[in-house]
């Protein structure tokens, strides 16, 4: 997807509907700076805004993603290309999110360990202060673990080793599952077999 082409198309359609950037932004509940960034090709409209934006500009989502009006005979082909491109972008975003979460989790855990060790040492001279620092380290570890598992759950899917189906389990299933890395022992909702299901990014 060419962001600059899409941006110019948004600007063209906006003008055809007699909207200023400020008018369009107000109707979408965003800032006119956000609209300006779209039109300059610096960013893309958020997926949650696309339908409403297309309704206001009187275009289809496929036309928006293609950056031009679509002739009816090419519609199906272009729609499929756009879906594939969106899936690729989601896959890349999920991988980046999971990598970032791993780095943050590692840094937070190291910080928590330092806090807990510091708290233990300080407890010898100031028991109350030392206990507080140790407690802070413990809370940081739990908060980091919950954050990391939440990101892991939301990014991508899991693959059943038996039937090879890809699915997204419940948050509870992911939290309670024995695991190593991002591979978790869970029950497949398709075949019903338990096994170690690995993290994948393609549906």
From TrEMBL:
Ranges of residues in domain HTH cro/C1-type: 10-64
Upper lineage: Bacteria, Bacillati, Bacillota, Bacilli, Lactobacillales
Cited PANTHER family: HTH-TYPE TRANSCRIPTIONAL REGULATOR XRE, TRACRIPTIONAL REGULATORY PROTEIN-RELATED-RELATED
Domain of life according to the entry: Bacteria
Alphabetical list of CDD domains matching this protein: HTH_XRE
Keyword Cytoplasm on entry: no
Annotated GO MF terms: DNA binding
Keywords, ordered alphabetically: DNA-binding, Membrane, Transmembrane, Transmembrane helix
InterPro entries with a match to the protein in the record: Cro/C1-type_HTH, Lambda_DNA-bd_dom_sf
Segments traversing the membrane: 97-122, 128-149
Name of the protein described by the UniProt record: XRE family transcriptional regulator
């Amino acid at each position: 997807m060419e962001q600059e082409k899409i941006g110019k198309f948004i600007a063209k359609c906006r003008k055809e509907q007699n909207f200023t950037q400020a008018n369009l932004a107000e109707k979408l509940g965003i800032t006119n700076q956000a609209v300006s960034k779209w039109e300059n090709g610096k960013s893309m409209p958020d997926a949650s805004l696309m339908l409403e934006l297309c309704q206001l500009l009187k275009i289809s989502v496929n036309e928006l993603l293609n950056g031009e009006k679509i002739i009816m005979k090419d519609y199906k082909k272009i729609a499929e290309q756009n879906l594939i491109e969106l899936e690729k972008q989601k896959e890349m975003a999920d991988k980046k999110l999971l990598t970032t979460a791993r780095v943050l989790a590692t840094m937070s855990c190291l910080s928590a360990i330092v806090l807990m060790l510091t708290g233990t040492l300080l407890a010898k001279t100031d028991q109350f202060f030392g206990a507080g620092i140790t407690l802070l380290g413990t809370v940081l570890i739990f908060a980091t673990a919950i954050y990391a598992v939440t990101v892991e759950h939301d990014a991508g899917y899991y693959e059943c080793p038996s039937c090879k189906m890809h699915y997204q389990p419940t948050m509870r299933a992911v939290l309670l599952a024995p695991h190593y890395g991002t591979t978790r022992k869970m029950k497949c909702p398709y075949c019903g077999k338990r096994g170690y299901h690995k993290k994948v990014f393609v549906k």
